[in-house]
Structure formats: C-alpha cells, structure tokens
Please model this.
Amino acid sequence: MLNKMHRIVLGIEYDGSHFSGWQRQDNRRTVQGEMEKSLSLIANQKIKVQCAGRTDTGVHALEQVVHFDTDSIRTHDNWIRGGNRNLPADIRILWAKWAIDDFHARYSAVARYYRYVFLNRSTNSALQHSRVSWCHHPLAEVKMHIAAQSLIGHHDFSSFRALSCQSASPDRLMHFINVFRQADEVVIELVANAFLHHMVRNIAGVLMAIGTGKQSIDWVQELLDIKDRRQGGITAPPYGLYLGGVYYPEKYKINKHSAFNKLPADACRFAY
Model:
C-alpha cells in the first residue's frame, strides 16, 4: 500500500559565499541543489524543494523557509539530523514541521525581512569579508535612516530594481525600514510584501551614496518619482545581504528565527 503524500516545511540558514545562488543550476554549486541531494538520501526518493524567496550568488540566509512533498515517513528529528549530516557545513536545517492546510513556502508568505550590513571602517575584515559589504568612507547613518523613510508604503520601485528584473509589476509595499549603527557596522533592515530583483542591494547603494554625502536626503524620493533604474546609482555587493526571515499568517504556525526578535513590534504586526 502506497503512503499518502504529505508536505514538510523546513527553516534553513546558509552562508551564500560559495554558492551560485539558491536556484538549481547544472554544474554549479547551489543551495537548492545541495538541499535536494541531502533530503533525497533521507527520503530514499527524489525530492524537489520550493523556497520562500530565491537568493542570488553570495547572498546569505538567517532563515529561509522551504517545503517539499514526499510519501516517505520520517520524524522531524530525522529530517533535521539526517539532513544536516548530509549537508555541507555552510547550510543547516534549523527546524522541521508538517505543513498546515494549503501552505506554500512562497505563495503563502505575506512579507519578507532582509538585512544589509556595511562594515564601516578604514580597513576591510579578514574574517568577515564575504559576509559584510565594506565602505571605508564614514557613513552618516541618521541621514540614511531619514532618507529611507520615503520608501515606506506602496510605491513603484522601478528605480530600485535590476534592469533585467522579470517581475510583471514594479509595485511593492514596504512595511518597515530602519538604518542604525552597531559599533563598526551600519545595518539596514527592511520588511516588504515582496522584493524585486536586486531591490535591496540597489536601496543599499542609494543609501550609501547619501550616507557618504555624495547625494542629498531627498534623492530617495527623487528616484521614486523618476521611476528609472538608470538614474539609481550603484548596486551594492551581495556579501552584506541576508534573508532574515519570512512572515506567514498565524494559522500556518511557522516558527520564527531569533533574528525577528530584533525587530520592533510594528515591523511585523501586518502579518496577522
């Protein structure tokens, strides 16, 4: 008798430094490819994994959410411990649970949380060079934060998406954006319903130009009005970008990584 297909949800973290992004590619090391190899060994059948949001080459995740369908019967501990045993050291499964109702890692998500980290000092880091974006010019984080508030709300983000972006619409809803300093690091935290290709990195590039005094605080609003990526300045490197977590309606009972605890309550109230 065949077992019934069921859906498993996982929370995973990874260091994207040595991956060609999330999406499976022939002859390339990808997060999806490594996840599917590991889980297929545990399930003893071919597994295909769906994620909440694809990350580019060099981008990291504090908590990516994925799901897969299988008729193999395993405990949550089997998926976590067995999966991690077969995974490379730069990917780890944090938790596992049964999916509830019609849960889908991507389509059930109501918002995503990203962090972008600048190392702001005179020399780059020998230890974190692949995990932060280095800016040796002093950054005025207060000006960056003030400028960033223009992005809150529903906007056409054409000036902040890659020219190659294939999304049908440039419209996105930004719920929250904060810029602050922690010692030698300047951190940007963003929560939106979804993000366009390179949107966070382009925002980071714009705010960096404002923080170094190359552009005025009003430049963010000007770019929103212009709706032209060619006027938007540099795309910040991928190294400092982290998918911090994914928001789902409460009914799905998806765990949240400790990174969410750093966010003010008003950054996540919309999810429920």
Notes: The two ends are 40 Å apart (CA to CA). The mean pLDDT is 92.
